[in-house]
Design a protein that fits this description.
The protein is mostly helical. The chain has a single domain, classed as Orthogonal Bundle (MetI-like fold). The chain contains 15 helices and no strands. α1 packs across α14, α4 packs across α8 and α5 packs across α8.
Length: 273
Amino acid sequence: MDAQKIKTTIFNVILLVIAFITVVPFLWMLVSSFAPNSEIVKIGGSFFPTPSTFDNYRNIQENFGFMRMFLNSLFVSLTVTALTIYSSALIGFVFAKFRFRGRGLLFGMVLSSLMLPWAVTIIPRYEMMVTFGWLDSYQALIVPSMVSGFGIFMFRQSISQISDEMLEAARVDGASDFFIFHRIILPMSRNTISSLAIFQFLWSWEDFLWPFLMINDESKQLISVGLRLFNGQYGTDYGGLFAATSVSIIPVIIVYLIFQKQFISGIASGSGK
């Protein structure tokens, strides 16, 4: 066996070990979601509890209104993701293809927003929501997140690679900037759209602190906050928690599967450049 094959084998073994370490906790959680609490916390039992019941999945809906929180999170996350992609693409297009006074300063302000710790903005954002009267509303969760400095930067870099001659040819043919953005820029930015969709949906879906501060009405609460309900004063409902968590990761997996092809293509083309 030559040196290259040995290196490849070692590399594959390392990847398998990392994959095993990553997957086993999720597999344990999934199996445990079908087991009673007594089996999960049993000392001296098998590593994987013996699955024997669907009660955990029934209880999370009957006792905690899980589906309502799930749909609330799905609505907010999808809305935020769609608005963030559109606003980031539009602003990125302006920064990439239009020349105007102060463009560099404005883009520098966008980049500086990426350097601020998110915790620094919590108090000003909270005071703004109180002033607007948006507490206990979806506006408080959606509007502050609909513009992303990270997304603007991604689209600005991506759109800068599109040929100016192509856009000028479209303008000569009578195309407006609105038409160019929707019919040329967006279709040619599929990889960037896919990447930002994955990141933004994940960030919105797992956000805990901001929904915790904004929403007190249980009928509007999100699943990221609702999972804490399984931790009671006198104990934790591990079976219910594992069942709820197992269901809650499904949308994230689906979003990644939908956009993974373009996401991987974008990484490959970026590394090639």
